[in-house]
Every structure is written in C-alpha cells, then in structure tokens.
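Hi L., both proteins are below.
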Amino acid sequence: MADEYIDTGRRKTAVASVRMRKGTGKVDVNGREFKDYFPLELQRATAMAPLTQNNLEKEFDLVIRVKGGGIEGQATAIRLGIARVLVQLNQDLRHGLKEVGYLTRDSRMKERKKYGQKGARKRFQFSKR
C-alpha cells in the first residue's frame, strides 16, 4: 500500500488536487484550516461527503490545493477529488460512491459569448426603425 494517494477533481472552472495520507483527520486547504476556508457547514459537508459516507473522516489527513471558480464549485471539485482518491485506496468503495453520484464529473460549463451578440444567447436589441 502506498503511503500517499493523489487525484484531481473538477467542477466548472474549479480544479482541486487532493493528497490523502494516513493520519488523524486534519484537513488543509490552500494552506488554511478547513473551517476557515469553507465558512458554511453546507460547503464543508459537500466537500467531505465521500469520507462521511464511509466513516473515514478521522483516518486520513488531507492536503488540498484548489483554484479557480467560486467557493461552491471548489467544494464540489474537492468532493470529486476525495472520491477518486478513495477508489484508488479501496476498489470496494467504488459502487457506493458511484451510486450516490460522487464519481461523476459535473460537465456543465459556462457557454462562450458569440461574436455579434451581447452574450452566449442574448442578442443586441432589434430596432425596426
């Protein structure tokens, strides 16, 4: 068994790199404490959901680097990264994580602005006269 597992999670423009090693449950996000980085309990619960589901919160230390996107997108990117690392660690967890949707990458991205238009779909106002 390797002593450290690394994987990546993505959501919109947020990218999270998750490093997991045996420990006591300490979580470090971009050099800050987990509770400082994610002030809302809902965001913390979203990010740690794969560990909570398998009762592994206190068994691993996490070092997470995340950039891009907003705070919610980053939390979801971290969730995917943690789920992928858990599957590397133990293939038996894959079915449970996949069933709940933690291993599915949310591929929805912002649609690009088209030339000659005001936005992705919105047009400039039409003037008949």
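That was the first. Here is the second:
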Amino acid sequence: MTTGLRERKKLRTRRALGAAALELAVTHGLAEVTVEQIAEAADVSPRTFFNYFSSKEEAVVAADVERARDMGERLAARPAGEPVLASVRAVMREMLGDAPRSREWIAQARLVRSEPSLVPQQLAAYAASERRLAAILAERTGLDATDLYPAVTAAAVMAAVRVATTRWLESDEHGDLADVVDRVVDLLAAGLRDAPSPGP
C-alpha cells in the first residue's frame, strides 16, 4: 500500500517527537523533561506535539507502536508460504540487526524499568501494537479478523518479545538479545507443550 506524502510527513513528525522525548528522558530523567523541550528538540510547536500525543509519557513509549508498525510491514513482505513463527523469527532478527533501532529499543526498556509512571502508557502501546499485529496476521493467513488464531498469536508474540527483553536486561545484558528472542520463539513454536528440563 502506497503511503501519501501527507501521511509520510505526519509519520516523520511523530517519530521525531518520540525520539526526542526518549532521548531527553534518558539524558535528564523523565521528571525534568517538559513538552516544550520535546517540541523544541523535534523542531515543532507544543501545539503540534499535542496533535500527536496526549502527554510526554505517551511520546516516550511511542517507539513501541512504531516497532509494531515496522514488524507488521516486514511480516507482510515475507514469503506467503512461510510459517508464521518462522516469519516472526526472521523479522525480529532483522529488526535487532538494525543497530540504531535496537539501541532505541533497549534505551526505552531500561527507562520504563526505572520510571514506573511509564508503565500504563507502555501497556496501552502494547495493546495497540497487539491489535495491529493481529490484523496483519489475519490478512497474511487469510483468516477473518475475529478469528482466534491471529489474536492469540499476536498476543503470544508480543508477550514473548516483552519477556525476552526483560530477561535480557535482568541478566546484566550478557549475550545477544536476538538469541533470547530465538529461545522464546522456539517455545512458542513448540506450543509450550513440554517444559524444558531444569538446569543443574
């Protein structure tokens, strides 16, 4: 689907505001950041800011929605006959291989862990992302949008990615985040039928 010039400009503005909000919050702390500072960093007016976001907290977690949009577009471009979870694995590998976007992802995850006030906004972003992913999966599989399969698969994928990111951060960021994502996708692909053998 071709995106018009107006929509592309709006998307660029939204992304610029989200990136500015995240960078300022990471640098100075969320409490010290104002909407005016975010707008100035993105070279727009505060009034324009409120055309896109209701609060600075919503802007800080906006990258979650953008990642879901990116994931959906990449999934839609995968080979039609490819199994859904194989496509998810490939797409996640691609996204984590994009160094700037990966750094943004990690910075946001760290910030949310340190700023409890961001949790409600992040949960809202996850819900929006999940709905978008479910719609993409329904289209990809030829199923109705109300079918359980795309809804459950989207919810499972979003939860798995969230768990993988949290677990990686809790492990002092040892190893490759993409490897942790691979492991959670393996669990989904196995249908969670059998628990792994406990370690020593």
